[in-house]
């Protein structure tokens, strides 16, 4: 499986490559759109490898748990169909994905290279979690002429990452020699021991060059930044109403014009929230977006980085430092708690994004490793317990504004950390473990099922 589909993790360590943690894809959800598209594409590749793709007579998909509960709002059926058609989130034109399920429901089966996919081929089973994971889907192909069935169950584990059921999640495509060259750490405490006279970004860069080579890593990081920047600028220029039925108006463009007209110093500070609105509106519209570390939380870190880049005129080297530092911190959170709203609520998505953004910002402002840890810890600590309860299963309310608020929080967390000397009482490892425990205790109603919270109290007009 490609490294974009599974984390490039390292034995005896937690590092996830920057090219995996920030993957270029489409909205509105990494776990419900990007992951299922990768599952469909992976299933197709498996059948091609087995030499039976040309003999597939029927393909069926069952969505389980949260993928079934909120899949329609997240475009999950469209994404699975697109994946089965061989489309990839990194390169697909979003317009090629949207609308397939609507046509299927209207009685127009979609042609998956000669295989018609109709309404009866997609089953929704929100109460079933056969794999025990909140986001899973099963794909089955009947092979002609005798109807032999080939099945695969996929877990969408957050951030667009997928895992085949029964597969070792620590499997890596990197060679033994590459793995040996990668710095090992499993916690913030171990990362701090490893850093010594280097920076956190240096440690992450060492891992990236071992995994991908310096040129490919540099080009990949630069492409991520280009996609983030394009997403902000596309979102700032768009208007209209977001799809899905809630009739949420896009506000970023108007807010941007208001700020530009004011032109005062407060307007410059407020701009970061508008950048986050722009990204999350683009995500909600199913546009091109970068997981950071998920689609639902895709506005926080790019908004902070874009804001810093334009106000402080950052060059690409500083932007790489920001993203590498954020990756080193995000890897620890992903491995020891979660970055998935379906697993641990919004604290895991927006809280993690806020911590990564705060860490990256602190790094490029010259913070020490201890100050970086402090900034990340502050950012997560004040998101603990945050639930995931998207209205109508759409990544719009509360998600869009939540990203805008978290972008400001990340800047505040970084400022607070830089005001100190790095000494702090609550360590990042402690707050990550607290997030894990809080997520485990949280009712499933608050984990991307839209069965509780705002999702049941907001009256749709
Ligand atoms: S509430 Fe948070 S975790 Fe849930 S979909 Fe929205 S951004 Fe993602």
The structural class is alpha+beta
What is the percentage of strand-forming residues? Answer: 5-15%
CATH topology of the largest domain: 2-methylcitrate dehydratase PrpD
Count of helices?
A: 20
User: Helical residue percent?
Assistant: 40-55%
Order of strands, widest sheet: 5-2-6-7-8
Give me the count of strands. 9
Shape annotation: globular
CATH class of the largest domain: Mainly Alpha
CATH architecture of the largest domain: Orthogonal Bundle
Written as H for each helix and E for each strand, in order along the chain, the element string is HEHEHHHHEEEEEEHHHHHHEHHHHHHHH
Mean pLDDT: 92
End-to-end distance: 44 Å
- The rounded Rg comes to 21 Å
In this entry the ligands are: iron/sulfur cluster
- Extract low-pLDDT stretches: 1-11
Tally of separate domains: 2
